[in-house]
Amino acid sequence: MSEDDLEAVTRAIALAEAGTSAEIRVHLDHRCPGDPVARAVAVFEGLGMQRTVGRNGVLVYVAVADRKLAVIGDTDIHRRVDDAYWQGVVDGMRRHLAGERRRDGFVHAIGELGALLSRHFPRRPDDQDELSNRISVE
Fold first, then answer.
1. Which of 22, 25, 63, 78 could pair with 29 in a Cys bridge, judged by C-beta atoms 3.0 to 4.6 Å apart?
2. CATH number of the 3-137 domain
3. Distance CA 12, CA 112 (A)
4. Residue 123 phi/psi, 5° resolution?
């Protein structure tokens, strides 16, 4: 992804989080030799996403070269949505990525997540941005 793409995704995260107390992160790996969900869980924990006050963080994980994706949420979010929801977000991203519309895929998925999160975890007046909106890369 280009620098412009990365900036667009960062802006999409900030916009999505403007209506929610939840946190969204995006992580890019070059490769994922195993299960992308297991890797996403390890990245989630490595980024400290389980330490948010509301236990309402969401990670969008992509292994670029292997074209593997996972979207996972912390315990409070996962209680409200099922695996089919997460898979639907992944499927939508895949459609964009297959059409070489990477930026659109990320921005669309983040927008969907923001809409869901704002319904279940509306922004509070005292809310603080607990996690960086920058994309992490390994």
1. 63
2. 3.10.310.50
3. 11
4. -65, 140
Report the DSSP beta bridge partners of residue 69: 62
Rounded (10°) angle between helices 3-17 and 102-120: 10
Residue 98: what pLDDT? 82
Q: What is the pLDDT, as a whole number, of residue 54?
A: 87
Domain boundaries of the chain, sorted by first residue = 3-137
How does DSSP assign 2-20, residue by residue? Answer: -HHHHHHHHHHHHHHHTTB
pLDDT digits (tens, 9 = 90+) for 46-81: 999 999 988 999 999 999 989 899 999 998 998 899
Q: Who contacts 42 (Cβ-Cβ below 8 Å, separation ≥6)?
A: none
Q: Which residues of the chain have a pLDDT value below 50? A: none
Single out the residue of 85, 99, 38 nearest to residue 63, CA to CA.
38
Q: For the whole model, what pTM was predicted?
A: 0.94
Classify the C-alpha dihedral 76-97-1-9 as positive or negative. Answer: negative
pLDDT of residue 128: 86
